[in-house]
Specification:
With about 240 residues, the protein is an alpha+beta fold. It is built from seven helices and five strands; from the N terminus they run αααααβββαββα. The protein has helices spanning about 20-25, 30-40, 45-70, 80-120, 130-140, 170-175, 200-210, and strands at about 145-150, 155-160, 165, 180, 190-195.
Length: about 240
C-alpha cells in the first residue's frame, strides 16, 4: 500500500476568522496577503497576516486528513488489517491537525483584539458601529424631534416630525453617547427640542456611507398586481333576439 500523501501547498483555506480580519482592516484577506509580500504593512498588521497564514495552513491540514479519512471509508480499498491501520493513523493525524488549527486560531484572535480595540477608539466618541435601530433613531431625529411627557401617565417619549416615536430609554442611551442633545430651557410637558450633535451627525454620515465590500444594489422585483388593481374589461353587450315584426 502506498504511503500517505503529505498535505500540499494548496490555495488558502477559508478560516472562521476571515470575516473579522477583513472587517477590522477593510480589505480582503488575499489583498492583505499580497501587501504583506510587498512589505507595505506595518508591524502590527504584518504579524496578523503572518499568524493568519499559519491558521490557513492548519485549516488546509485539517481538510486534507478529513478528506483522506472519508476516502478510506468510502469502499475504495479492501477491508483488511492494512486499511484499519491506515484509518487509525489518519484519525491520529486529523486530531493533531485539529489541535494545531485551534492553537493557530487562538494566536490570530489574540492579535486581532488590540487592532479591533484601536479601530473602535478611532470612531467618534470611541463608540462601536451604530446598530440599525440607533441609526434609524438618529435619522428620524435629524428631521426634527421633541421630547414630551404625558400629563396623565408621566411616560416620556420622543415624537419626530416624520411621526416616529422613539422610546425614552433609547434617547438616554444616545444622549449619554454624545450623539444627541435636548434643549432643557423648554418644559418637558410642552416639548423639549432634540437635535443631533456634531458627533451624532458624523456617526450618522459614517453609518450611511456604502461599504467597500458591498455588492451592487439589486432592483426590487415588480409586485404582482392584486385583484383590486386589475382593470375590469367591459363585457360585450348581450345580443337580444330580434323582436317579432
Amino acid at each position: 500500500m502506498p504511503p500517505d500523501p503529505a498535505p500540499g501547498t494548496a490555495r488558502r483555506a477559508v478560516s472562521p476568522v476571515d470575516h473579522r480580519v477583513e472587517a477590522v482592516t477593510g480589505h480582503d484577506v488575499d489583498i492583505l496577503w499580497g501587501r504583506r509580500d510587498r512589505g507595505v504593512l506595518d508591524e502590527t498588521h504584518a504579524r496578523l497576516v503572518d499568524l493568519h497564514r499559519e491558521l490557513a495552513k492548519a485549516e488546509t491540514g485539517v481538510t486534507f486528513y478529513r478528506t483522506l479519512l472519508h476516502r478510506l471509508s468510502s469502499g475504495e480499498f479492501p477491508v483488511d488489517s492494512a486499511l484499519f491501520a491506515r484509518i487509525h493513523r489518519t484519525v491520529d493525524q486529523l486530531e493533531e491537525a485539529a489541535e494545531e488549527r485551534d492553537a493557530a486560531a487562538a494566536r490570530v484572535m489574540a492579535a486581532l483584539e488590540p487592532i479591533e480595540a484601536a479601530a473602535r477608539s478611532t470612531q467618534p466618541g470611541g463608540r462601536e458601529a451604530l446598530s440599525a435601530a440607533d441609526q434609524a433613531a438618529l435619522l428620524a431625529i435629524a428631521g426634527g424631534a421633541k421630547l414630551h411627557e404625558h400629563l396623565v401617565t408621566g411616560r416620556m417619549s420622543v415624537a419626530t416630525a416624520s411621526g416616529t416615536r422613539i422610546p425614552y430609554a433609547r434617547l438616554q442611551r444616545l444622549e449619554s453617547a454624545g450623539l444627541v442633545s435636548r434643549d432643557a430651557s423648554h418644559p418637558v410637558h410642552a416639548g423639549q427640542p432634540v437635535a443631533l450633535t456634531e458627533a451624532g451627525r458624523a456617526a450618522l454620515a459614517g453609518s450611511r456611507r456604502p461599504s467597500a465590500t458591498a455588492g451592487p444594489a439589486r432592483a426590487r422585483p415588480r409586485a404582482w398586481p392584486g385583484a383590486a388593481g386589475l382593470r375590469r374589461c367591459p363585457r360585450p353587450p348581450t345580443e337580444r333576439p330580434n323582436a317579432p315584426a
